[in-house]
## 1
Amino acid sequence: MAMKRAAASAVRALISSGNSAPSSVLASRGLHAAAGSKKIVGVFYKANEYASMNPNFLGCAENALGIREWLESQGHQYIVTSDKDGPHCELEKHIPDLHVLITTPFHPAYVTAERIKKAKNLQLLLTAGIGSDHVDLKAAAEAGLTVAEVTGSNVVSVAEDELMRILILVRNFLPGHHQVINGEWNVAAIAYRAYDLEGKTVGTVGAGRIGRLLLQRLKPFNCNLLYHDRLKMDPQLESEIGAKFEEDLDAMLPKCDVIVINMPLTEKTKGMFDKERIAKLKKGVLIVNNARGAIMDTQAVVDACSSGHIAGYSGDVWNPQPAPKDHPWRYMPNQAMTPHVSGTTIDGQLRYAAGVKDMLERYFKGEDFPPQNYIVKDGSSRRGALEGHMVPFPQTAPNDATCDSIGALLREVLSALASYEFYDFVLKRRLAKEMRSWASLKLLIYNQPDRRSTAQQSVYLGWSSSNWAGPVPDPANQSDFLNLATELS
Amino acid sequence: MAMKRAAASAVRALISSGNSAPSSVLASRGLHAAAGSKKIVGVFYKANEYASMNPNFLGCAENALGIREWLESQGHQYIVTSDKDGPHCELEKHIPDLHVLITTPFHPAYVTAERIKKAKNLQLLLTAGIGSDHVDLKAAAEAGLTVAEVTGSNVVSVAEDELMRILILVRNFLPGHHQVINGEWNVAAIAYRAYDLEGKTVGTVGAGRIGRLLLQRLKPFNCNLLYHDRLKMDPQLESEIGAKFEEDLDAMLPKCDVIVINMPLTEKTKGMFDKERIAKLKKGVLIVNNARGAIMDTQAVVDACSSGHIAGYSGDVWNPQPAPKDHPWRYMPNQAMTPHVSGTTIDGQLRYAAGVKDMLERYFKGEDFPPQNYIVKDGSSRRGALEGHMVPFPQTAPNDATCDSIGALLREVLSALASYEFYDFVLKRRLAKEMRSWASLKLLIYNQPDRRSTAQQSVYLGWSSSNWAGPVPDPANQSDFLNLATELS
């Protein structure tokens, strides 16, 4: 199979080049398991007759990431099920004694506080893919667990999918295809609302990894590209991508012919596209949302698609998932929806299966994971799960033994941050006042007691608009940080 | 409507910048009509209820390119119909006295030799769009007619559409969408054969304007891009686009995960993808064909889609068109077909409506058209309609009055060729032996008697592999051409 071979070989190249552990992060961590037999449970969707149709279809229960032979040959137990809900499900039986739980966002096993409490042996929660919404991260952190995903494994997949959906909507593909299968031929009924993408204004709400990959792929289409994010890109990257930063979301949205949603679901973004916001969009706007269904007000989207205010809506995310048979988005006009699949292409599956295997291998050896994969590390969370918008202490940061004071610790933090993607992403721009709404900072020193390591200390760099009233530090000047730290310490 | 406004403004910019006549081509031609009332007939598809849904929907019979008011205000008669077939159709009634016939490839009025014979006043055949397959070009040339189209008006539209179709097939969009509308949710049934485009080998058969625009848009997807054409691109352009030239089509095809057809329908390409050629493609290959349906053997495509040898086939061209209700491509598995619409987006319609208006305006004033628009000019054909692969004499070429010898004429030709796109496209590469199959040349001097101008002389630069056995001239050395001309003269 042409596509099968091409996908597999691309992933082999990726794994061999990028996923090996740099020696600097190989320091042993108490949290990780010593070698020994582990009980690993994987929860995946059943593929039934499709499981055998493609040897690279690794993400289903039958093929179980392709790691059974490897795990069992090392003496580990590997239970795989798709039965994940309710008190009598197969998963529930294994909760009390599993060490590792592997799940996917496509068929999520909800890891509630209650399940975490019952899981006395649980150490590691792995997402085969991206997105750990289904895990109670606070409970996981409090229990000292590690939660990790295969960061980056789906970004290309989703960005490509978004561009496909933009074109499907702009060019009015589906009515033409439906004519074909219905035995019809009526060019007018398609052409009266089919457009070129060229020359249109496309705005992405969020320009993280997926949003940037989308913008890069949009560039040769000669569109007017806009992006809104909390952060302006590096000017060089911005100019390479050819997109214009829009600080004010509500100033950007009414300019857009096409809006793409590329932001996470948070309390702030939930229901963000409600009746009022949609009313302010251009009449005839097209919306692509592969982020999360709940960012949209479901009924407001139905109403605007029915009135024609939204001329097309496409995405693979729903609220809830799986979408029930009577979900109104299935039946609204001008929708180009699919089930939640954009991140689970065969190529994506090969990447996240390889990423999960890599993390299990490191876990067995007591080695660190690639730093970007951690959501909660040994009970310490990144991505704001514990408080506001905290960013994690970088994985290369010192431990107690090398830091005898807050000041020394902070010096280490600053030095470590320089190599950490969040440094660029947050500090340089935030502190240079490019985001004026974040005018003040606070540094939080956390003492996070851990079930296994009593003295484990994590340092977070966070911010709030209320707790710090001093001048905004200059990111180029490390002493500003030390001064700040002194005042706070 | 967001898209409507954006499309219209982009086209206004295009027309005002690019379509005005350079003063050098404004020389009056005897063939063009003197000022006076003309009878112009336009044949377009009827849009019925869709006609009024978008003021920019110019390509339908009801909106008739938006030029009625303008034509009638100048005293011309403008008949518009969609009734074009059979001896008693509306078009047939106007054949005897029309001066200009405007047609589209989307609802083609067949201009046969018989109709041309009956059309005693006919001077000009305009295609609103691209493609003049529906005109008997030999008969038109013999009758001294001019046939012109709006070259370039659809190239972006078709290239975008091709990329959409590639993504739809690679990512297995349609089965997911059909699940949505059927109330289903089965990620496995989609994911087992959904891939990323990244890393796949995409080959275009033909890399003319559309093929190049496609390759440019594919570049950020990080594919392995191949192209086959009679001509290798300029090395700089090739490196910008990032595609590799494949001289031997049958060597390229088996390498491709995705094949895109971007070549014209000729006697040579008709049925080119037959059972034997398809059998040599990779199992699981995806094919996109927005060129012409007859390039494929219809049944061979059905069989290969049914067996899975072709894993997906998408395009908007059929043989015949409109596709009858029982056309097997409507019902074969893994097709993502539409009616023939890719070149008739609203943006495309605005461009070709503006292009037709521009040519009519020039016709009324007796001015030349933009040179690239001519298919047959005053009875002289380009694009090989009259003989082999002849290329036209450039529009800026001298007429009899300025050329008193073949040698002087050729010097003028060579100088004119330097500014003509075909020079780059054919001469530089052909003669530099990059296409070894074109090892020899001949220059043909035509005397083309014309109904209106008895002494009209056209010069063609053509080639054949048999009539010239001398050394291949160096394109950088004009004297090589003069020597060649001398020998032939």
## 2
Amino acid sequence: MAELYCKMTAEQLKTEQKELFARYNKFKAKGLKLDMSRGKPGADQLDLSNGLNEVNDYIADGVDLRNYGMLDGIPSCKKLFADLMGVQPENVIVGPNASLTLMFDYISQCVTHGAGDKPWCSLPEVKFLCPVPGYDRHFTILEYFGIKMVNIEMKEDGPDIDAVEEHIKDEAVKGMFCVPKYSNPQGITYSDETVRRIAALKPAAKDFRIIWDNAYCIHDLDDNGDELLNIFDILSQYGNEDMVIEVCSTSKITFPGAGVSAIIASDNNIASIKKRLNAQTISYDKMNQHRHVEFFGDAEGVRAHMKKHAKILKPKFDMVLEHFNAELSGRGIAEWITPKGGYFISLNVMDGCAKRVGELCKDAGVTLTTVGATYPYNNDKKDSNIRIAPSFPPVEELNLAAELLCICVRLACIEKLLG
Amino acid sequence: MAELYCKMTAEQLKTEQKELFARYNKFKAKGLKLDMSRGKPGADQLDLSNGLNEVNDYIADGVDLRNYGMLDGIPSCKKLFADLMGVQPENVIVGPNASLTLMFDYISQCVTHGAGDKPWCSLPEVKFLCPVPGYDRHFTILEYFGIKMVNIEMKEDGPDIDAVEEHIKDEAVKGMFCVPKYSNPQGITYSDETVRRIAALKPAAKDFRIIWDNAYCIHDLDDNGDELLNIFDILSQYGNEDMVIEVCSTSKITFPGAGVSAIIASDNNIASIKKRLNAQTISYDKMNQHRHVEFFGDAEGVRAHMKKHAKILKPKFDMVLEHFNAELSGRGIAEWITPKGGYFISLNVMDGCAKRVGELCKDAGVTLTTVGATYPYNNDKKDSNIRIAPSFPPVEELNLAAELLCICVRLACIEKLLG
């Protein structure tokens, strides 16, 4: 039975530290080079989609896929995404290989042209609400455009909506980033109540936009996945159809670097996005859209495919969590949530210890997501949050990496307690 | 021997008109539906690149092409473009399927972040120089961002540089769009002298940027193609390395909708573009980059491939020009340049007649590029320029379309002369 570190004497902690250092040094001697930094699928997951490349027909949906045209995507691919996301095809634009680009480009459009009101670049200040911990690449977009980020604490059923409701009284607050299902990094799925309260928001800014990054919409780890209320089913009840811009992609369904993305929005927003796209491109890659349609057939085909990913991913998540349970629980030094899907496990260690854990891991050859990156401006004030990405390393390597991580967490906390 | 229309009597013109209308009505009765509007390759051209789809290896340049990463493109593809364009790989970023997107995104970056000076959105006015006639999609980008377009007349060896030198004394003039080889629509290649004078410009705006859209860099119609001086070879002589942003793509080499593009720029500009890209995407489609590298092997492979395109395109250009020579020359109603490459023939008809030619063609089932679109704001003050895109229709259809076009030109001019 593990003992609470805070209850241990300095002598006891030093004994513990000595044992842990012995284990740590053994790891170090192995000269490991393991990467748990990013939510990258492993090579075995990528192999699941190699059939994508077998398509050889060039005419589909009545057009030559190789040639120019079809700004918003081929109808069959729009339908595939519409069926998956529970919306109408006319509210879908199929995009490039990264939904990140769709989000960046939409924010850029708001900066230069606004979202129905003045261009954001003409305003003295623009702020966005950022549930924390959150996805570093969202923060990077906002920071690039000089949009001020306001932290919103994540609760166990989504962002703190009381705080959101308070902040949106400020007209400079123009939007919020959300990962509503299997949030990055905590793996939290917003409750129906949270989604309803978000759909019902009455922001002071009439051009308030929620970027609903549904990156993990069908990314369950087993048959017992979370259900997310479809926000587009309820927005109209509150007259808020234009408030939400949803994105998703096949990055973690087929190939991260060569998938297709989609943006889902109201008629008004689709029109304004198309107006921009008409200047920005002639069409996205229809060949790749068709490859995906042919490979999956329909939305059911995509869901069946996701079960294959789950089979590969679940043991990896389980392994990390087993190590956490074995080495970290009961010591009062770390907390985590067991996610039912997504790509991450979020670990909160004793305040002031996260960066040190990152250093210790790095020195022993294990790369974590840059500690602090889960907060805007890289500023995790408590220095507590660590994002674990278990997907990429093969399972044997992950076993080593997770054990090492636990050793480093314990060592960092002991150092802190010994002062 | 054709007679000058302006020398003919009203009676003679009416007789001519009657004959032409008889021919016109015969065409109309055929119920044609022919498209000469856009520079789209024909299906036989697209077939040349079907081998692209045969690649099945997923590891190249030491990375898994399917996964995330490599923001600026795989090294082998960067090298392919570098060799083609005569620059160093480190000055190349491989982009998405459309160089149009690279141009739009770069201008957008200048609007929100500037090009070394203040963001353009913070300035009271931003102007761009536009050689005319020019490419409508360039104008669409500028119009989208509210950048004021200033016409610069095209001469036979490129834009009127005297006028350019005058306009750039105005600090609000921030840039210029150029299609330096086989210009769209005239097919003019800038002379060495013109390229040198452009490279030597000393604009009042320190953040002046020339978008060097080298869309037709290797798109000769036969072995007797034009040579364009490589502007990146001489910019440093004038301390102007940062003044030019070059783009190109395989849109008219492989598949217009599923090719790869590249942006070529100085070290400084590459760094600022990468800074933006780091927020905008994780990587472009490396699978597609690799398909292109495998398909071509090297720059010589691309050049050999272009000869196959030329074999298909040359007879189409010749056919249109034969009709022009047979029906339009000697009548004093139209002028054109015989291009050695590119995708267009630019036809200047008698002032005030171009729109009418478009209408007559449309009524008989032949779609031309929207008349006027070759000028900013769709404003061809002389109503004279028509862009002909002979690439898309099969040669038998093109034969009909070109004959009809000539009839329409003659009819419109007669109408005008008869008042």
## 3
Amino acid sequence: MILSGSIQAHNDSLLKDHVRRFDFLRENIPAAEDIVSKLIAFQVAIPSWALGTGGTRFGRFSGPGEPGTLEEKILDVALLHQLNRSSGAISLHIPWDIPDHPDSIRSLADKYGIRFDAVNSNTFQDQPGQAQSYKFGSLQHVDKAVRKQAIEHNIEVIRHGVALGSNTLTVWLADGSCFPGQLNFRRAFLNTLESLQEIYAALPADWKMLVEYKAYEPNFYSTTVGDWGQSHLLASKLGNKAYTLVDLGHHHPNTNIEQIVSLLLMEGKLGGFHFNDSKYGDDDLTVGSIKPYQLFLIFNELVEGMDARKMDHALELAWMIDASHNVKDPLEDLLQSVEAILLAYAQALLVDRQSLYHAQQENDVVKAQEILQDAFRTDCRPLLAEARLRSGGALHPLGIFRDMQLRRTLTEQRGIHTVATGL
Amino acid sequence: MILSGSIQAHNDSLLKDHVRRFDFLRENIPAAEDIVSKLIAFQVAIPSWALGTGGTRFGRFSGPGEPGTLEEKILDVALLHQLNRSSGAISLHIPWDIPDHPDSIRSLADKYGIRFDAVNSNTFQDQPGQAQSYKFGSLQHVDKAVRKQAIEHNIEVIRHGVALGSNTLTVWLADGSCFPGQLNFRRAFLNTLESLQEIYAALPADWKMLVEYKAYEPNFYSTTVGDWGQSHLLASKLGNKAYTLVDLGHHHPNTNIEQIVSLLLMEGKLGGFHFNDSKYGDDDLTVGSIKPYQLFLIFNELVEGMDARKMDHALELAWMIDASHNVKDPLEDLLQSVEAILLAYAQALLVDRQSLYHAQQENDVVKAQEILQDAFRTDCRPLLAEARLRSGGALHPLGIFRDMQLRRTLTEQRGIHTVATGL
Amino acid sequence: MILSGSIQAHNDSLLKDHVRRFDFLRENIPAAEDIVSKLIAFQVAIPSWALGTGGTRFGRFSGPGEPGTLEEKILDVALLHQLNRSSGAISLHIPWDIPDHPDSIRSLADKYGIRFDAVNSNTFQDQPGQAQSYKFGSLQHVDKAVRKQAIEHNIEVIRHGVALGSNTLTVWLADGSCFPGQLNFRRAFLNTLESLQEIYAALPADWKMLVEYKAYEPNFYSTTVGDWGQSHLLASKLGNKAYTLVDLGHHHPNTNIEQIVSLLLMEGKLGGFHFNDSKYGDDDLTVGSIKPYQLFLIFNELVEGMDARKMDHALELAWMIDASHNVKDPLEDLLQSVEAILLAYAQALLVDRQSLYHAQQENDVVKAQEILQDAFRTDCRPLLAEARLRSGGALHPLGIFRDMQLRRTLTEQRGIHTVATGL
Amino acid sequence: MILSGSIQAHNDSLLKDHVRRFDFLRENIPAAEDIVSKLIAFQVAIPSWALGTGGTRFGRFSGPGEPGTLEEKILDVALLHQLNRSSGAISLHIPWDIPDHPDSIRSLADKYGIRFDAVNSNTFQDQPGQAQSYKFGSLQHVDKAVRKQAIEHNIEVIRHGVALGSNTLTVWLADGSCFPGQLNFRRAFLNTLESLQEIYAALPADWKMLVEYKAYEPNFYSTTVGDWGQSHLLASKLGNKAYTLVDLGHHHPNTNIEQIVSLLLMEGKLGGFHFNDSKYGDDDLTVGSIKPYQLFLIFNELVEGMDARKMDHALELAWMIDASHNVKDPLEDLLQSVEAILLAYAQALLVDRQSLYHAQQENDVVKAQEILQDAFRTDCRPLLAEARLRSGGALHPLGIFRDMQLRRTLTEQRGIHTVATGL
């Protein structure tokens, strides 16, 4: 679907009010233009598996019009990107999204300005006909044959990624144990390291490997890459192309994630992000729906740390949503998530860094808090709208999605009972 | 399978060593005979859905020889009960276990000394062809039609239970919300109350209703029956036949569950237990595999509180396992779970209550701890073995299960790819 | 100190910018006037013990110019109230704040428009010369003599409160146990109930008793009033004058506090609030400094629930800050806390309740979130400033506090090494 | 006090029963003699600050007869060591325990077979007359002068340690922040690293530095050495003499500590332990009083990992208790703690490592659990008693401590109102 005409009409109807709001804000914020430019450049990758309804171990309540093919998934992302101009990338998951014809997939994506972000391997499920089972782990497995199969799968994922123009492999391992005694932690770590080294050796020169960590689930006693320390240890031993990937939902209760972000940036080992939100565990809720201030604090560290290393905000880290949409329309949920990410980014850009530095040097805790909260409490939504307006997107993406009844159109095209691959 | 002959042979081979151990223990424990009698009387219900391999939202790795029919599930429990003589009850889950011919199912169970414990309704999944969806809740739902369907389902579950000789309905609700704003908490609670009242009205005179609570999952922002306080409030408003059911995995981190148990007993509102263990959330691991001391402390309160109310330990509360077996053979897992429950019970019976009372009256914290830990550190396994021996079970249930290769027999009978209904 | 002149000058200098901001907001918010009126009426009580620097078990780093007497504490609150016009109440703690001459204290408070909010008893510390020790509890104690002493202390606190014009007693109990076995939970609960009944009997006719709960600390195994369920059970057994008090820091990790608030309001048993913020436990940080969205969600339930019962927002619940200021100037911290509370209240008032109701009735989760976040993301600070302006306070209380160097003035008056009573 | 005569009499009275129990156990455990030898060699250091009653921020309830001087503290440890022969080391805390005459202190300790374990610096409190305040940190501080003072204090601690024959410095830092924005995480880390490097440079050749981490408290937003990953990063950058120290209470809820232990051992970076137990946070309860199975699992990893590196269990790691005794007699509490540590160690030694290895290689999760639980469920107390008997200690240390009324004797010597330095 090409939406430019509709977007134009939609924007026209909202323009006057938007201008009033943006003008008010511009008067308060000297750096408004700079922030708008950075917002325009910032792109968040959409994971292919988040385009369908998610579920829990207790059940799944599918919605209508889910994408049934890789092409339809790309079209979904294209739809999002037309609306918000900030979703210009897709992250595929193998084997759920093996492209039969990489070239045609690539041109379809190109047509909509979508690039292929990190490719993801899957060794946490058994596929039909698979020789070895991952019931007791993959890269950590006590049996060399299982590890070999998992290594080869990862290398195959790299091949698919190369064909699509991706340059990053994300490795998330469910490996771990459910009971004390099940695993020798040291041998599991060393097996994992050795396996990752073999995969690392197969990385093309310009590729990165992102090693994701997670505190628990689906293993309920130990996870072999369980925290940032373990991921960082692996990435350090692997080499310069290996980095840590942070997923906001993969921590123990109360963890200070923004501090981890800062330290990984300091060490040059932060590779990217999986955004989502949660109240209890890896709940995979809409970004910013539960703890928006934490999200802002994380972006505050990201901006500070990337600037300290003179990194390009938009290009050097992998930004991706990784959420599950159990009770919302996936596309609407993703629009809300991207909005929340950009809002936190805008607020972080708004922080008066010079004043913050001085407050810190003087241990003026009250003022430091005022500076952060002044940025957070500012209503930055007009900045986001302006960025979308300038780049051809919609002033109110969710509004137009609903007004145009886009889900109904998709459902008419695809049917009510399509089920997207994914969790 | 009738195992009595094999059990006899197995016991003969272990008898001498057992006698030595039991005699040693009997010399140390004056109340040994009394404890053995209580252990013999204590029965733990096996949930029908725990006889197959469990899974997580990330996948499920099935095992061989799972029971495919209700008859086979009863035979599995019969097998367990022959081995440990402590699993003489089964808890069914509707609609997974609807009996086509209740009478023949009942005689099959009778043959093995198995009774029908609490029956469980399911309004957390949609069944094929169901008129209304539970995507947004069941008994709490904003739409009366959905509530009505869920109420009727519960009443139907009672009918099935009556036909089988059960006298308890367990209501676990996944109802809640995933996002702030989704739900009006008060209206959700009041709808739930009203729905439960209609179900309560349909309870036969000698029935109980157990209202289970859970802190979170599968809803990740709020759960409408989320803690013991909410369950207790509902049970109080419902009436004398309504009780709270405690599942060990349904709490926030660090919760003192034993205190909740004590207070519910004080109020006469404790209805029963779902046993399992966990490190993170509702991990549904083998009972006693992670926090055996907590399990002992819970039994310590149970024994103390039931004795204070002169309750019959074996008859007045519903004791059930509710675990998921992702990486273990379900029957082996259940043997381990029952053993852990009985061990904790035996340790709790061993506590010197008179001395404990005096230590508490004198605020002698050191001594109170010594008394509890003396019981916990005592190796009570010979008491359990003796109880099994006297009641016709096996001295070492897991040993004989493996020696006789019972899973292999079941797999030969049922096939490798049977999948039991359940999570 | 009478600050009206300085405040006038301060406001004049900021007025033009304020008017611009307020006018912009008023254009967006039809209910702006109504919200401003409600903000003016809303008063937050300042606890006398929060006027000095707090500490931890590892140490305390005092600040200069702390109030050394009850008079000075009242003057501190008067200073806050002149600045923000929202701190027109003080909550005293006995025995830290026993007034020698209640009448003169009362006229001092009257002079500044300060009323006496809830009075607080202290049975978690031993005072010099005290006959019985609270080492092993107070109202729960196994020894009747200890309970009696604690009961009498509470009754004495009521007497002090009557003399000052208070009408509420807040009972926070540290009672509990540090080790399994130390306490019989049931007897501890029943002793506590009996003790509270004796105190309740001494309440004047127009008084309330607020029963506070806390999950843990300073007892590290069990707390006798440990959660809302236990507090509610006690309050229900006590009678119509007994209510539950919610302190935001007194829960297990991840607890959904807003749901508790909603249910207590539903039952007519919510008595009041202790505001603070926390990341780990009862950290007692500045309100809104860690989880401002949670604070908003709580106020969202408060507004909804109070409106449903047609309660007066400003008068029927006890609103109090209960924080500890380890690294900030206490008065600055309190200004930040009051601001955060009013901001959350304003945002909650902004929620479009009619639309939210309809979204909930339609299970439109996306829209429900949009409605809440639209309110939260709106920059409501001009509403607060306007409320202060209209009631004679400062447009920027923290700004004027710093510009006038009020702490320096206080330090010159009181000295550097005064230490306020408190934790 | 020299207790050998009394111990002899005490042992005589219990000997017959002990022999019966030990003989029974020896028959079941082929390796009994080897375990007893290892138990005899294993020594746990007693921290000088744990000899007095601890407190919380809410208060402290002192007990009688606390040691008022360093000499008395050494005599307390000597008393413990005579009773259990496993407490042959003391860990001092500077400035609480500055020895005026190191030589005489050293001979006093020698006399009782007590050596000086790690010395501990204190930069989390301000001492009277101190030039710079640690209110905003020490080794992390933005002000070089504060860092310098803290560095010099640590070097002074090393000097005291050298004079006493210690060879280890433990650095625990309270450094961190209470509010977002207060600290630049990266600069705080780098300042800390630089400061530690200066201290490291002052370490004698045969010394170790142990870098302790802690998730939170007394800072409630961030801690600069907050988890094992940060400690390990610092220790790696510092050099071969720097190690990580694990305190059981310094983690987020649910953390798998045993896995951390295993990985640190794998990396050759585990330096030592602070033993205690907890249910909520850094509760500092008696070792083994809340989660004895977790303690066993940790020792299981320690034994496995030390054996894999052919380390001497008794000599190469620093074993220390770090608990607070709020409601128990400190000496009784320490006797219980040492007993719990040795019990877990004995159980871990009992694990059939060969079978466990094979079970792991076969992914036989059920058997792996059986092997661990078989060790844990075995009543190993007679092994501990035998070890004490052979090394001249008491069969029942707590029993003789009470029978001889040793606290009464100490109180008569020292008075009721002595207060030991410490928290």
